[in-house]
Amino acid sequence: MFTAKTNYARIAFETILFYVSTGQIKKTDESKISPDLKLKTACVVSIYDPENNLKGRMGNVFPQKPTLYQEIIENSIAAAIKDKKFKPITNTDLNKIKVTVDVLSMPQKVENFEELKPHKHGLYVKDNDGNNGFIMPGTKRIKTVEQLIDGAKKAVGIQAKKNKDLEFLFFKSARYE
Question: Does residue 71 fall inside a structural domain?
Answer without folding.
Answer: yes
